[in-house]
Design brief:
Strand content: 15-25%
Largest sheet: 4 strands, antiparallel
Order of helices and strands: HHEEHEEH
Number of helices: 4
Shape: rod-shaped
Strand order of the largest sheet: 1-2-4-3
Distance between the termini: 128 Å
């Protein structure tokens, strides 16, 4: 006997294809959502990792900035201490300068020369006085030049003073003061620099 299928097979086939389509579409959406979620998670983890690195670097930079500030403060203190030390050393070196100055003034004054006034402005010394002759003034200048404590001897004034009965010459000299010990140290430093 012949069987005839009267069921709407085309309709079933269409329904089956539709169900397969929706199942595949649903699986595609799930796979797409899963890929999006994994991508989001991957980039989120990378961003968190980079943020942690940035935070660590910021902390390290802040610590280094503090150390740099401390170093600058120490350098300024060091410069201040060095400057104070130099002032103290200079005062120590110049402590006996006045004694040597007056000692040298006594040693360099020849007979026939009289000092009336001595002024000091920094390292420049101005001396005013009288001499019996021009030769005495010249001799006095030679004595000053020969001294280790005086340099740059200059004549400011020489004139005859008619107010005195002996007609002595009034003079005004200026010299620069120097410290022979300091000059010797500088010379030693120059010699060492040339040797090296």
């Amino acid at each position: 006997m012949v069987k005839i299928n009267l069921l709407p097979w085309r309709e079933e086939r269409r329904q089956q294809l539709t169900n397969e389509f929706y199942a595949l579409f649903g699986m595609g959406v799930v796979v797409a959502l899963l890929l999006c979620g994994l991508t989001y998670y991957y980039f989120d983890q990378n961003i968190k990792f980079q943020s942690n690195r940035n935070q660590h670097l910021t902390t390290e930079i802040a610590e280094l900035d503090k150390k740099i500030a401390e170093i600058k403060e120490l350098e300024s203190k060091k410069a201040s201490l060095i400057q104070r030390q130099q002032v103290i050393e200079e005062l120590q070196a110049n402590r006996t300068q006045m004694v040597h100055l007056f000692d040298e003034l006594v040693k360099t004054i020849p007979n026939g020369v009289f000092l009336e006034k001595i002024n000091q402005n920094g390292s420049r010394l101005t001396m005013e006085g009288y001499a019996q002759s021009y030769a005495r003034i010249s001799d006095y200048m030679d004595q000053l030049k020969a001294s280790d404590w005086f340099t740059k001897v200059d004549v400011n004034l020489i004139q005859v003073d008619n107010s005195l009965p002996s007609h002595e010459q009034k003079f005004k000299l200026s010299v620069s003061l120097t410290n022979p010990a300091k000059k010797a140290k500088e010379a030693e430093g120059d010699d060492e620099g040339e040797a090296s």
